[in-house]
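Quick one, tokens below. Sequence please?
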């Protein structure tokens, strides 16, 4: 992976994703708020404690997730928040100075009006900054684009200025006030409609209106490289619901061959990484039980965590893994070569993952064995600054909760499926 390209006022991280070097995604960091968002995004995990002991989440899982579902995040809850961002910035008199107060008021209104709904941001944190949180979707799905062709201009202040200004034109109708960004005209119209609806219909809904869904599906269809999210949009436009799929590779993408290939690749990667993660959990549990037997004080004891319950949870995950492996083992052949993992991860990570696939392909499927324990222990020791398997001082800090024992689904259950379900069920 090439190093980040640094620019004044922010940085651009170029990450090559997917199965070809032609794909990439970018993150533009403009201020402390957005910097925190990217750190949260890259470090968190939808399952367990948000800990990535083998250090393959951000370099593999999140890169593939961005290829499959660009512009999404595990922190996202409901699709309509993507439209609430421009709506709030469009509110009469909105400024950067009063933005926090306006968000808190809207969060409270949304909570009161949607008591039977899940994913309402204001219910958990009244002052939650959903404008910056959802800004990646606003930018990636091109609700807002730079006039200058410089993506660094797509900032909240510039977006607010473009929505708040009254256009002044010359005698020939040419705008005299220039902006560095421009909103899609449909977005401006939908933002105005949002406030008009509140005057006539009362409290706001977290459900998208049909016009909003139609717009967002068009934006998904126009995504570059035609990712699976675009193929899903095509199916939704044709009345084919997709939100019932348990995993993203279970969705029907019709004749979108490239999307199907991407999902199949993601499925194989998920199985291989899941194998290493489960082996790690078995090794972690074994070491913790040994420490328990020696009467060592540890965090899981202080929290009254029963390791037998932890073991039961890991065994349930292992049963699921065995069923999946029986069906999918024939797909692992190409992944035994480090070159097949390019450009995911570092050379060391690619070697580790390819060798993991080779162990599986050659019948080494007892993830509880000493072979697998040694394998993941070495990986953790080399790549994790606080390895639990080789350092008792780190091990005693474990809470007793399984660490990334569930299969990766690349944001599907955490947020994307909820978005798809919202798109399937517009209100009004």
């Amino acid at each position: 992976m090439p190093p980040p390209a640094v620019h004044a006022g922010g940085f651009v991280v170029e990450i090559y994703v997917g199965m070809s070097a032609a794909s990439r995604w970018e993150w533009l960091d403009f201020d402390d708020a957005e910097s925190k968002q990217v750190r949260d995004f890259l470090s968190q995990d939808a399952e367990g404690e948000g800990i990535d002991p083998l250090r393959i989440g951000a370099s593999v899982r999140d890169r593939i997730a961005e290829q499959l579902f660009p512009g999404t995040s595990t922190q996202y809850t409901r699709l309509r928040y993507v439209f609430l961002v421009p709506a709030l910035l469009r509110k009469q008199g909105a400024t950067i100075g009063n933005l926090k107060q306006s968000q808190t008021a809207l969060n409270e209104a949304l909570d009161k009006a949607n008591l039977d709904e899940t994913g309402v941001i204001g219910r958990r944190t009244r002052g939650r900054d959903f404008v910056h949180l959802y800004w990646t979707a606003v930018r990636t799905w091109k609700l807002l684009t730079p006039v200058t062709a410089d993506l660094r201009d797509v900032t909240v202040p510039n977006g607010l200025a473009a929505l708040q200004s009254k256009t002044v034109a010359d005698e020939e109708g040419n705008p005299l006030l220039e902006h560095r960004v421009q909103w899609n005209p449909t977005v401006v119209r939908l933002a105005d409609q949002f406030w008009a609806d509140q005057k006539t219909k009362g409290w706001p809904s977290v459900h998208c209106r049909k016009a909003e869904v139609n717009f967002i599906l068009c934006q998904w269809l126009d995504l570059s490289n035609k990712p699976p999210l675009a193929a899903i949009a095509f199916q939704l436009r044709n009345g084919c619901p997709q939100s019932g799929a348990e995993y993203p590779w279970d969705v029907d993408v019709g004749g979108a061959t490239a999307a199907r290939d991407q999902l199949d690749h993601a499925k194989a990667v998920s199985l291989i990484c899941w194998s290493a993660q489960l082996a790690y959990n078995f090794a972690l549990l074994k070491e913790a039980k040994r420490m328990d037997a020696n009467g060592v004080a540890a965090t899981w004891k202080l929290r009254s965590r029963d390791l037998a319950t932890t073991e039961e949870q890991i065994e349930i995950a292992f049963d699921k893994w065995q069923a999946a492996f029986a069906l999918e083992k024939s797909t692992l052949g190409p992944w035994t070569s480090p070159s097949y993992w390019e450009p995911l991860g570092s050379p060391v990570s690619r070697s580790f993952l390819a060798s993991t696939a080779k162990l599986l392909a050659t019948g080494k499927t007892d993830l509880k064995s000493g072979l697998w324990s040694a394998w993941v222990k070495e990986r953790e020791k080399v790549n994790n600054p606080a390895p639990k398997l080789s350092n008792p001082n780190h091990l005693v800090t474990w809470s007793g909760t399984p660490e990334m024992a569930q299969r990766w689904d690349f944001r599907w259950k955490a947020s994307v499926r909820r978005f798809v379900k919202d798109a399937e069920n517009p209100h009004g």
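The chain has a mean pLDDT of 87. The two ends are 46 Å apart (CA to CA).
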